[in-house]
Amino acid sequence: MNTTELVNYLNELLNVENCADAAYNGLQVGNGDAEIEKVAFAVDACLEAFQQAAQAGAQLLVVHHGLMWNKFGAIVGISYKRIKYLLDNNLALYSAHLPMDLHAEFGHNAQLAELIGLQKLERFGEYRNQMIGFSGQLPDPLPFSEFCRQFEKINQGQLAVVASGKEIVRSVGILSGGGAMSHLEASEKGIDVLITGETSHSAYHLIKESGVNVIFAGHYHSEKPGLHALRKHIERKFRLKTLFLNIPTGF
């Protein structure tokens, strides 16, 4: 299988062309004719990820946060060093930003909902006129403190919590990454718990007064689950070697 064949499959699977995004989704760097035997996955496009992928013998790196956004400028400084490393090591770079948030099967939010065991899923979290998250019901009501304890094991990272809602919770909304302001939508829909990634100082008092419990899982940790699921799918479907590069940021 060559790069173009795998990229075309990913583009169709993730529906990248129909996603309104600030990022450039798809193949960002690479030779379409190059053969693919091993694919690496990581949350962020950075030199550390490139080095680990190349050292592991990967020909393609799939990331959630790529190098190219709407305001991508001159290729100098850090950008030059990163792209030069990719070219020097024949390592292609594929990025899927919002497509990996909103996908109904391989998206971060869908995977988090599955890991938590949510039922009666509905779309949640509007961004750029599209719903990218999910909400649902827990199988049984839980004390919020117990839900936090269980979710911390799933998340595999320390949580930051604003306990400003019900002590017994049943409904959960999930919006990976920087979704702090979606507490407004959660409040309007009567959702007991919002799970998102990155904390927001400016949103703290609004959250506290909204009557919604909010769990900040960390931007990095909230955007691993979809990549894990996609990695397993690509490995099974195409019998390619794959690996996930765990490079946490602490945020």
3D structure, described in words:
β3, α3 and β4 form a beta-alpha-beta unit. The chain has 10 helices and 11 strands. α5 packs across α10. 43% of the residues are buried. It folds into 2 domains: 98 residues, Udp-n-acetylmuramoylalanyl-d-glutamate--2,6- Diaminopimelate Ligase, Chain: A, domain 1 (3-Layer(aba) Sandwich); 118 residues, 3-Layer(aba) Sandwich (Udp-n-acetylmuramoylalanyl-d-glutamate--2,6- Diaminopimelate Ligase, Chain: A, domain 1), CATH 3.40.1390. Helices cover 36% and strands 27% of the residues. It is an alpha/beta fold and 251 residues long. It is elongated. The strands form 2 sheets. It has a 6-stranded mixed β-sheet with strand order 5-6-8-9-10-7, with helices on both faces. Strands 1-4-3-2-11 form a 5-stranded mixed β-sheet, with helices on both faces. The model has no long low-confidence stretch (mean pLDDT 96).
Write the layout of secondary structure elements.
Elements: H1 3-14, E1 26-29, E2 38-44, H2 47-55, E3 60-65, H3 77-88, E4 92-95, H4 98-102, H5 108-116, E5 119-127, E6 130-143, H6 144-155, E7 160-162, E8 168-175, H7 183-188, E9 193-196, H8 204-210, E10 213-216, H9 219-222, H10 225-238, E11 241-244
Parallel strand pairs: 2-3, 2-11, 3-4, 8-9, 9-10
Antiparallel strand pairs: 1-4, 5-6, 6-8, 7-10
Helix pairs in contact: 5-10
